[in-house]
Amino acid sequence: EKSQIIEIKHNLRTEKIPAANIKWIEAMGDYVKIITPEKKYLVLFSMKAFLSKLPENQFLRIHKSFIININKVINYTSSKVNVEGVELPIRRYRGKDFRQTISQI
C-alpha cells in the first residue's frame, strides 16, 4: 500500500509531505516541481518514478508534464483542468482516463 506521507530530499534535507497537501506535480527536465499550498519543492525525480510513490486512487497523470491531485479539481473541460484556480492542460488521449476517474469520486 502506498503511503499517505511522501518523503523527498529538498535543499539537502529529507522532508515529509502529506499526499493530501499536494495540488499538482510538474515536470521540469530531470526534476519535478511539487506544488503545495505552503511551498513549492524542486526534487530530482522522473515523473514516472514520482507517480509510483503516490497513492493511485488520489493522483492522475493528465499530461506528460502534469500529475494532479484529483481531490483538488474544481472544474474541467475537454482540454483543461482547474486545480484550485490554476488551469492545467489535459492531453487528448488522457482525457478519457481523467473523466472516468473523476466520475468515480
Mean pLDDT, nearest integer?
92
Discrete helix count = 2
Which class of secondary structure composition applies to the elements? alpha+beta
Please give the share of residues in helix.
10-25%
How do the helices and strands follow one another from N- to C-terminus? EEEEEHEEEEEH
Report the count of strand segments. Answer: 10
| Beta-strand content bin | over 45%
Termini distance? 20 Å
General shape: globular
- Largest beta sheet, briefly? 5 strands, antiparallel
Poorly predicted segments = none
Give the strand line-up of the largest sheet: 5-4-3-7-6
Q: Report Rg.
A: 13 Å
Task: Describe it.
The longest helix has 12 residues, at 92-103. The protein has a 5-stranded antiparallel beta sheet with strand order 5-4-3-7-6. A 3-stranded antiparallel beta sheet has the order 8-9-10, with no helix packed on it. It has helices spanning 47-53, 92-103; strands spanning 5-10, 13-18, 24-28, 31-35, 40-44, 59-63, 66-69, 73-76, 80-83, 86-89. By secondary structure, it is an alpha+beta fold. The radius of gyration is 13 Å and the shape is globular. The two termini are 20 Å apart. The model has no long low-confidence stretch (mean pLDDT 92).
